[in-house]
Amino acid sequence: MKEFRRNILITGGAGFIGSHVIRRFINNYPQYRIINADSLTYAGNLANLEDVKDASNYIFVKADICNFELMQDIFHKYNIDSVIHLAAESHVDRSIKDPFAFAHTNIMGTLNLLEAAKRTWKNSEAVNGEYRNLFYHVSTDEVYGDLDFDGTLFTESTAYDPHSPYSASKASSDHFVRAYHDTYNLPIVISNCSNNYGSHQFPEKLIPLFINNIRHNKPLPVYGKGENVRDWLWVNDHARAIDVIFHEGKIRETYNIGGFNEWTNIDLIKVIIKTVDRLLGRAEGTSDNLITYVTDRAGHDLRYAIDSTKLKNELGWKPSLQFEEGIEITVKWYLENQKWLDNVTSGDYQRYYDNMYRDR
Ligand code: NAD
Ligand code: DAU
Q: Which of 92, 159, 215, 216 has the fewest CB atoms below 10 angstroms from its CB?
């Protein structure tokens, strides 16, 4: 049997960002065994990993991070030496409707994983300056709250000030992760990233939702006046940043990841409309009338903008793609993968994989 150099548990690997991280690690590191633990909520879709599912260094386990015994079993069974933790409830609007689900998964689920890691890795001291174990927690810029239109940026030392139940749950999990280092010496690292865009994102989030709606001539619900600002990063650049931080990040450090790429929602929506119309061969302006201003999101954060200078200066990472190019690639992907979108919007993907994993 092949000996792997590392056994890496990646949680939430069937989701949007997780699937890109899994693909990257499977393909770039055949010497690592990747164990994907995902409970396949509505946001988890194994079709996202169809192209790598048979790789010899990949194992999928349908598992809920809220089940502590199961997490412990996975650590023992697969001899897990490091974790990249992405599993979460991730959609702000859902957190406003059901905050308990967010506290449950994002806080308790993270705590379970920390505790399982702590109990398994009893001797996580550095040998020759190198740790064998690492708990990498993937977090969000939303923990910092929001910014004014004054050019300021979130840095790693910005005070936490979360506003939504989603960001409050992520902030809490970040605090637990640091507490496990400070109290139990667990080797941890955290990154806080801005809004991601790219293929395989669940179409409840702005970009895939709007691409799909434009294609089907459905209204585009713009919250408030569309003036809120987000800082968009191509998901593959996030996956590459995670790779760099996993390998070269310093224990107990935090790294902000962002694209220096701020857009008001309404300007971004106009770019999406123009791109979809052009790629569908429609005349420019055809879909402009789909823009529909609706009641604002409760507690809607005004502006996010990340300063990722530390990551650039210390670990040499910077975004690889200009936004215009990234959006073109992304819109094309959704238009060419209508079946993926249809399966997701109809719920067929869940029925298919539910049957597959029913008795496991
Ligand atoms: P997603 O909603 O697309 O995927 C989440 C995945 O986690 C799904 O596969 C789901 O099945 C799984 N999951 C949920 N609850 C689980 C549980 N209890 N046990 C096991 N698996 C469970 O999310 P995403 O957008 O890919 O985000 C991934 C991570 O990155 C999250 O931690 C999120 O907070 C963070 N993040 C996201 C963004 C973004 O723009 N999407 C930006 C910064 C940080
Ligand atoms: O900043 C990182 C965060 O980005 C991640 O931590 C979250 O997991 C991720 O969902 C994302 O959060 P946002 O709330 O910024 O993303 P969303 O796509 O839901 O919304 C983007 C902006 O668009 C936001 O200002 C709300 C607005 N919006 C969104 C939807 C779904 C609309 O105007 N209409 C919509 O229908």
A: 159
CA distance 185 to 125: 8
- Exactly one of 64, 142, 156, 237 is catalytic; name it: 142
Please give the radius of gyration of the chain, using alpha carbons only, rounded to the nearest integer. 20
227 counts as catalytic: no
Helix, strand or coil, per DSSP, at residue 222: strand
88-139 pLDDT per residue, tens: 999 999 999 999 999 999 999 999 999 999 999 986 665 656 668 999 999 9
Which residues have any ligand 1 atom within 6 Å of their CB? 11-12, 14-18, 38-41, 43-44, 64-66, 86-90, 105, 109, 138, 140, 170, 193, 195-196, 202
The rounded Cα 250 to chain-centroid distance in angstroms is 21
The domain defined by 6-201+231-261+299-322 carries CATH number 3.40.50.300: no
Are 198 and 132 within 8 A, CB to CB? no
pTM of the model: 0.97
Please report which residue ranges of the chain form alpha helices under DSSP H: 16-28, 68-77, 92-97, 99-102, 110-120, 165-184, 206-215, 235-248, 265-279, 309-315, 323-336, 338-346, 348-357
| Whole-number pLDDT of residue 131 | 65
Q: Which atom in ligand 2 lies closest to the alpha carbon of residue 265?
A: 23
Q: CB-based burial of residue 67 (10 Å sphere; 0-12 exposed, 13-18 middle, 19+ buried)?
A: middle
Task: Note whether 191 and 245 are within 8 A (CB).
Answer: yes
77-102, pLDDT tens digit by residue?
999 999 999 999 999 999 999 999 99
